[in-house]
# Entry
Amino acid sequence: MSLLEVDALSKHFGGVTAVDGCSLSLRLGSITGLIGPNGSGKTTVFNLITGFIVKDAGDVRFKGQSIAGLGPNRIYGLGIGRTFQLARIFPRLTALENMLVPVRRTGVRALFSRGQWHDEKARAMDMLAAMDIGHVAGLLGGSLSYGQRKLLELAAVMMARPQLVLLDEPAGGVNPALVERIGEHILDLNRQGVTFLLVEHNMPFVMGLCQQIVVLHRGSVLAEGTPADVRQNPAVLEAYLGS
Amino acid sequence: MTLVLEAVVFGILTGGVYALMASGLTLIFGVMRIINVGHGALVILGAYLSFALLRSANIDPFVSLVVTMPAMFLLGVVLQVVFIRPLKEDREALSVLVTYALALGIEGLLGYLFTNNFVQLNAWYETASFAVFGFHIAYVYVFGFGLCLAILAAIFVVLYRTTFGSAVRATMLNRTAAQLVGVNVDRVSAIAFGIGVSTAAAGGVIFGMTNAFNPGSHYDLISRLLTIIVLGGLGSLRGAVIAAVAMLIIEDVTAVVISPVWASFAFFLLLVAVLVVRPQGLYGIRVRERI
Amino acid sequence: MRSTARVRAVKWTALLIAVVIAVLVPVIETDPATVNIAVFTAMYVGLATAWNIMGGYTGYVSLGHAAFFGFGAYAFGLVLAHLGIQAGYEPFLFVPVAGALTVLLAVVIGWIALRTRAATFVIVTIAMMFMIQLLAENLVGLTGGGSGLSFPVPPWSGDFFDTPFYYAMLLMALVSLAISWWIRRSKFGLGLLAIRDDEDKALAVGVPAHAYKMTAFVISAGLVGMIGAVYGYYVTYIYPQYAIDPLVGISLVLMVFLGGLGTLWGPVLGAVILEPAQLWLAYNFGASRLYLVFYAAVFLGVILLLPRGIVPSVGDLLRRVTARGAIGPSDTTSTSSDTHTMAGVQSP
# Structure
């Protein structure tokens, strides 16, 4: 069953075509990697899917419903979360408060029910502990190390139980030990039913983690397949290395 | 019909003055990302400086610019270094408070030195005018407009033809990147502020010749200038000029066609109308964080 | 380490004592001049606290709040005149009506202003304030224009006159504080703080930023409008340039900054310090134009010496003195430096 379908998506910025008829499909429960040389449009595709940029053409369908044109908060409400290339958390809130910001249901009652607040806090502490950052719960986001921020960002996004999570360079900027931990957390969450789409430059990480790889070049899909297929694809090698 | 035409011409001429004042304001915002709500007070200060020179030494207002513009430039640099540069966190919001305080201080000082009576810069040629198409344009307005064009042209030349100008534009586009390529952003900021304030001096002379003013006049002035730069797009010089002229034309035409009372209102109404359609102003960039 | 329960008990007791003292002010102090100062101080406590709900929590600094203040006053005066309410205690019951009308205005202004962000927003609020002022001056049939608008004058004796107004202002201040406190510890308040830190990130985790900002803006405006209504009634006669006075709008912002932007008690502290100082300056130097210069000097001193405000600076100091581990450099107004945040979570 296809959880997310991107259908001939296009986006221009002035004279530059960032995304050019990009089409891909994510199977429910899969971990897919989105790779490609710099400038191939990967982050723009993310921004289009998550509602930060408005498309010029094409469509994005989540669980069969078109989500193109919805704002980022609506899209999160539907169950699509994302992380950012440079880990973004709320610096002036504590780690625990960061965990409590995400909003899935915007009913008025959900805001004020005391019982729900306590449950949320308990869950937040559990999730922080699962990521091994339970000890920083009371510290301000701004005083956390970059690695802790990355983990916090992922944990917070997961608070509202999204079904699909787009990770923008989850292994970027952190030491190898942490990269491994992040990979384990992703696998863990995937086992619990979360579908992932990652943008990554760290090839061993992507090839080892993902079941399916999509290669983007100049805004459109150049190749897709298993890691083994993609690794041997001459067109892909040419795109990365030049002929 | 002649009335409307006259209003349009008048709008263009006065628009030039506002364009000059607004360009200094938008330049300051572009380089330092601060809103100088004291700009109106600085214009009035410039007007009073010329007034003092006129009253004591009988120096023609336009001639006094030779003294007041450099003096105000220095003042601008000093103000920037002493009051603006120390602001580290929450720059945008705090700078508004700081510049407002400076405006109040200037207003108080001017009130103390000159009292709150209305004055005006008078010159021998003030009432002289020439006739065009059946209505009269006072020489003062034409001189003023000419001066504005000259100074605006000078600013454009500096910005686009000199190394310093490139440094300024680089700082406006991306402060960090400019620093990385060796631009001394602190110095650029101070000088840009100085330039902004000296244009206020020039604007003050022309404003003071065509309007009666007192220390409290800066409120009305700054509200208009702020509206103009938002309409034009914060940081855009081209936008400031176009917005200034457009707004003044519309205001003057409204005064003639509807009533003078509602003319000022039309001024702000135009801002609202544009913002509803285009929140970033005419030439502004959509403020969206880098994703 | 002290238990959270005991700390909280101490804080509630201190608060209770403060409220009792505040309530007893007109009883203790019989000089009407002092009560007059108390009226204006309470007024600014309310104004600063209400403004903080928008400016402090969301980070959207409105410099045009004087518009809501003046509009509230005018709306109240017109409602009283229209309904033929007699002077006395009865008018106070209609203050919420002025608040409701101000809320409507805020919806209109918010719809335009909240399309913009940061610096543009600040300027748009200033422009909107001048527009309201122009309307007040020019809709002569409605507002009396430059001649002003009168309110029914209560028949209370000279010495007693200020007292009911003091209690009205005190009540407004307490209501503003209560709302501000309640918002702060709710998920809605957390969303506002998130918007302030990083609005796009907040959107990415589902915070309905536009709705939240609008709500905070409207609540803030409504409270300010009600305070303006009481003010109008107090001074019995209002004029456009004094009811919708940029100085009022800026003063209350300065008070919040002095006390600590975004904290609960910062605005209170700022108002309690600055308003009596402001009145003292006006009384002693108001006649000479130098009053403005002194005021500006105080202003600049506050901003340059204490850019983060008192509450965060003191909070920092305390933390540095009592902390055992390295907590790290904290940023500006942290929510954990405040009294009532997430219960049950201890800092390590």
About this structure: The radius of gyration of chain B is 19 Å. Chain B touches chain C through 54 residues (CB under 8 Å). The longest strand of chain B covers residues 129-132.
